[in-house]
Amino acid sequence: MWWTYLIIGVVIGLVLLLCFALAVASFSFDNYYEKWKALNQKRNSYGLTTLDYVEDINEKFFDGRIKIKRCAEFEDHYSTGTIGLSAQTMGSNSLASFAIVSHELGHARQDFTGDKLKKHWRMRKTGKICGLFFLPLLIVGLVLTSLWAFSVLPSMIYLIIGLACAGASFIIFLFAVILKYEEIKIEKEASDFAIEFLKEYLLDIEIKYCQELLKSARLTYWAGLIRTLLSWTMLTSKTPMFR
Ligand SMILES: [Zn+2]
Asked: Fewer CB within 10 Å, N- or C-terminus of the chain?
């Protein structure tokens, strides 16, 4: 039958697409790490430390309103009015530190000039709570619908409850995907701002290196979206749907 071939074709196509998506997802993290390692060896030509740089940007663009506090290594971040830097980052004058910290300063600019970052944080909190219900709802939905289909629970009410649960889990999934997509847009803008800050301090070639690192970081956000899309396959279960 011709449709047998069609189904086989579609299944093969889907499997290939899945393999490709998973390959992109794992490649992007290795790629970012390699770039980071290389750039961590490169010092900026002015010999500025990252802390000097952050303090300077803080004065110039934020009237000193950003608080700078110390955090654990590899946990440099921005959260409401405060930038957290590890001792290693503060003392470093590598281009990798500059690029990462500039990105965090980009988030600071988003926070100081609008409410989209705070809105996103609030949505993510809601998402985290909704995410807890995803799997239970999906399982209850599938079990009830199957039991109805096999006439174990013949009453129509089980089908309705089953479909409602499955539908609710699908809405949660969609919410996760939309949130991830929003996050990618926010991250891109933070990196664009980062480049603007860096332009005040670095040589063109140094900016180009930083830009490449930030670009490869962006690929990991797309990988995050792929992971969210494929989370139901359990192949990427290590990443929670909402972070
Ligand atoms: Zn970011």
From this structure: N
How many A from CA of 103 to the centre of ligand 1? 6
Predicted pLDDT at 4? 86
Q: Return the minimum-mean-pLDDT range out of 43-47, 51-55, 100-104, 232-236.
A: 232-236
Alpha helices, DSSP H, located in the chain = 2-40, 50-62, 87-91, 95-113, 116-149, 156-199, 204-230
Q: By the 8 A CB rule, do 90 and 98 touch?
A: no
Cα(242)–Cα(224) distance, rounded to whole angstroms?
10
Q: How far is the CA of 188 from the centre of ligand 1 (A)?
A: 8
Q: Cβ(98)–Cβ(210) under 8 Å?
A: yes
pLDDT greater than 80 at residue 240: no
What residues does each domain of the chain span? 34-233
Instruction: Measure 222 CA to ligand 1 centroid, in angstroms.
Output: 13
Alpha-carbon distance of 136 to 165, in angstroms, equals: 9
